[in-house]
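Lecture 7 notes: from sequence to structure.
We start with the chain below.
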Amino acid sequence: MSGYPPPPTSPPRRPSALLPLLLGILAAYIVFRLLQGGIPNPFARRAGGPPAEPRPVTARGDLSSEEKATIELFSRSSPSVVYVTTLARARSFFDVMEVPQGAGSGFIWDADGHVVTNFHVIASSSNVRVTLDDQSTYPARVVGAAPDKDIAVLRISAPREKLKPILVGTSRDLSVGQRVFAIGNPFGLDRTLTTGIVSALGRSIQSMTNRKIGEVIQTDAAINPGNSGGPLLDSAGRLIGVNTQIASPSGGSAGIGFAIPVDTVNEVVPQIIQHGRVIRPQLGVVLADPRLAQRLGVDGVLLMSVNEGSGAEKAGLRGTRQDENGDILVGDVIVEVDGKPVHSYDDLATLLEKRKPGEKAKVKFLRGDRTLETDVLLSESR
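Predicted structure tokens for the same chain:
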């Protein structure tokens, strides 16, 4: 160990208090001289360059007939499209407040203030607002919804002169390749028009309830978050679908969008307006868990029970039950409705939706090793 004492240490030097003041004075001087023209601007062009004038505008001629038609379609249809915003309740330390939850699109259905959008746009929201084409905003009441079809109906109390109902077309005669137009609010950018074609027909997508939505329209018109609930139009400006989902690895438009067909919308919306829900026909049965049917090796829909007094009971259908010895007697297994195969609950529900309460459906079922058939009077679902 050295016998020399350690070198003395000096306190760290503090920057002079005058330095910031001097820098401030220097900066103020430079700015003053620049404003007075005393310091040359290194970015200013040197005098004596060649003379320059604005380029003359080239006449473009008239717009094409296709462009004129698109402009006219947007001008005529966009006032029917609305901006839907939703709020959700959030609890803070002191209080409960409503905070923005999401946004989507919709369209005016009629002059009574009914607005159609997607169910997933307003699901779980505590408050909904609708902004019209003139930027006026109104609180919206949820009239009802068809979650299985991803359709919801709102109502606003706006002056009738502000409400322009959308023109309604049909989807049953669409052809792959025909022009389509989408108007909506992608990423909150309202009154956005995108164009494309019908890419495919008869697609199936899954709703929030995991039910299959059939006969869906596929389009390459750009559909992005915020377009949900907005209209898909044909070249006549008629509603042919409700933009609902996209297939995209990135979450943005990849040229594969899906729209619920207008024929489905035109069937569902009037029921929601009148009843607050969709009136569905039913057999009057309780179905077994699909996993049980799979374990039994059954290809069809196994009946767990039959409702008393239902059309199914009157037609002689039987549910699963126990005999006097406690043994399980497997119930009837529905394999066809109206000549169409039934492999799952989704198949059964889809086929029954084509009928109305009060009509009879022809049901083919398995009972043990026998195949039987009966007519079942359909009742109204509750």
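Points to note: The two ends are 96 Å apart (CA to CA). The chain has three domains: 75-162, 179-275, 281-380.
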